[in-house]
Amino acid sequence: MFKYLELANPEFLFLILLLPVVAWWYYGRYRTHYASITMSNIAMFKGQSSWRGRARALLPILRGLAFICLVVALARPQTLLSEENVEANGIDIMLAVDLSSSMLAQDFEPDRLLVAKRVAADFVEKREFDRIGLVVFSGEAYTQCPLTTDHKVVQDFLENLQSGLLQDGTAIGMGLATAVNRLRESEARSKVVILMTDGDNNAGAIAPITAAEIAQSFGIRVYTIGVGTIGRAKSPVAMYPDGTYKYEMADVKIDEETMKSIAAMTEAEYFRATDGNALSRIFSEIDRLEKTKISVTEHRQKSEEYYWFLVVGAVLLLAEFLFRQLFLQTLP
User: Fold this and answer.
1) Domain boundaries along the sequence of the chain
2) CB burial class (10 A; 0-12, 13-18, 19+) of residue 57?
3) Taking 90 as the threshold, does the pLDDT of residue 84 lie above it?
């Protein structure tokens, strides 16, 4: 609900420019209307001013304020009440994030997983009217956060993601199937999965193409993102007894053909992110492609407020008249 004041006839405000002219006329009339006495010395009258003399100076001020109020009343101030009803036909989006140990590779600064989490959180913040959920996978898959409009919850889950929560591996098919299962009963006009991985499918009971066929049958679009540089990257290749990883240069292997097939089957697109900036641009492109339909209906209502200024102006004129006639009356 928005409330503010506007003027229906603002041109009447130019009448206020007449105030200096009226003041000049009043001063000239005052000098000719009231008699004056010339005295050689007024020292004896210093400090002898009465309250009537001081109060008389208020009369032109009251008249001036009354004039301003009446001019504003002529300008017809109005209170405008505006209310907007926003109806959003949102999109249901499931993020499927790879948590395999290879996501700790350092071809992204500081590593692939941290950059993916940050970029995904920024994307969630932009999707004001959509329900968003989160699925994670490595050697197996599970739902980290079901579809929700509470985007702060989704962002908190993203922030707390870390590799090692699940058995290591890359079960792309299981991750996609879990995300599709969360969307299959959705009544949203558009259902989308954004799948991020840096490897090829080497675990799980469901093949990626089979999961894509299931998504296709439910009308779910699957945007696939291959995360990793071209060539070799410093990657974890073994784990020490204390739980830390041993890093060596290793080939970056992403099953791009499968990723492209999944996207094509579901009428979406495949992207390759070779660094953090590229990943940000990919999410911006998905944000552009998947626009939420928003309908805004505005209701406006005007309420006349000029009578307040009219009443105040009349009261000031009445006060000036009574003050002058009852307390400050002079003889001609």
Assistant:
1) 2-31+53-82+299-326, 91-291
2) exposed
3) no
